[in-house]
Amino acid sequence: MKAGSFSLVLALVGVAAAMTPPGLIPSNTENMTVFFNTSSLATNGIAIAQSAAKNTPTLALDKSLTGTTFMVLMVDPDAGNVGGNGSSAFLHWMQDGFTSSSKSVTVGNKTVFALENTENVVPIAAYLPPGPPTGQTHRYTQYLVDTTGVKGFTVSPSVANSTMTRVAFNMQDFVKQANLTIISANFWKTTGGT
Ligand SMILES: *[C@@H]1O[C@H](CO)[C@@H](O)[C@H](O)[C@H]1NC(C)=O
Ligand SMILES: *[C@@H]1O[C@H](CO)[C@@H](O)[C@H](O)[C@H]1NC(C)=O
Ligand SMILES: *[C@@H]1O[C@H](CO)[C@@H](O)[C@H](O)[C@H]1NC(C)=O
Ligand SMILES: *[C@@H]1O[C@H](CO)[C@@H](O)[C@H](O)[C@H]1NC(C)=O
Ligand SMILES: *[C@@H]1O[C@H](CO)[C@@H](O)[C@H](O)[C@H]1NC(C)=O
Ligand SMILES: *[C@@H]1O[C@H](CO)[C@@H](O)[C@H](O)[C@H]1NC(C)=O
Q1: Ligand 6 centroid, distance to 178 Cα (angstroms)
Q2: Tally of domains in the chain
Q3: What tens digit of pLDDT does each residue of 154-194 get?
Q4: pLDDT tens digits for 28-53?
């Protein structure tokens, strides 16, 4: 499939009962590396200053997955309810059209293959940098979805709505309704005012 923006197809789907507990990585079939620059990683819950997270991070995998297309979502499960179960997260970023570069890059001491939006696919939700209230620490969680061969996804109106408004975004419902598979996840922490 040629990488391209999804259209949200609306349909009535039953409400999902399951919920991913906070911080839980649902499945991890690929190791994902996330970084803002090649001098340090933004992985495994490390603290990243608000000032260091202004621009989109780079996501990368341990190997180049030629022929695979990816979508990245970033959510703040602590929006409105710090330490909550993430059922009402804020959607910070939703971008499809990523492919795996065949050229490696070294970050810290790790050699990885970056994901690139070479066709300049317009984001479904453009990256909004972390901006928690001063003194509050939130977990910025990135999910990587394999979209190879996927032409669109069918979600309920309320879930589709929350991808537009970004508020009350339920990742578990979204993934379940859209029938998507998360292949990797990561998070860092940012404290407001840093
Ligand atoms: C998650 O938290 C919300 C708000 O506190 C609550 O309504 C909901 O039942 C919780 N869901 C689960 C699965 O615990
Ligand atoms: C992810 O990295 C860990 C540690 O280097 C390694 O043990 C594991 O096999 C890797 N998983 C995959 C799917 O490559
Ligand atoms: C690189 O990114 C880290 C956050 O991962 C930040 O703390 C550091 O200041 C950045 N370094 C440069 C040179 O921009
Ligand atoms: C890279 O490896 C060297 C030698 O093992 C170590 O001293 C250094 O701290 C490592 N750097 C990072 C960013 O992990
Ligand atoms: C969509 O969002 C708008 C504005 O927040 C709200 O008024 C409307 O009820 C929402 N629709 C659904 C189906 O959730
Ligand atoms: C969900 O996706 C799987 C493959 O990832 C497919 O086999 C299955 O038919 C899909 N289910 C629905 C309801 O679209």
Answers
A1: 9
A2: 1
A3: 899 999 999 999 999 998 889 889 998 888 888 899 999 99
A4: 788 899 999 999 999 988 999 999 99
Domain-embedded: residue 11: no
The rounded distance, in Å, linking the Cα atoms of 136 and 67 is: 41
Output phi, psi for 158, to 5 deg: -70, -35
Residue 65 lies in a domain: yes
pLDDT of residue 181: 85
What own/partner pairs with CB < 8 Å and gap ≥ 24 does 166-170 have?
Answer: 166/90, 166/91, 166/92, 166/125, 166/128, 167/79, 167/88, 167/90, 167/91, 168/88, 168/89, 169/75, 169/88, 169/89, 169/90, 169/91, 170/16, 170/86, 170/87, 170/88, 170/89
Distance from Cα 91 to the centre of ligand 3, integer Å = 24
Residue 157 Cβ contacting ligand 5 at under 6 Å: yes
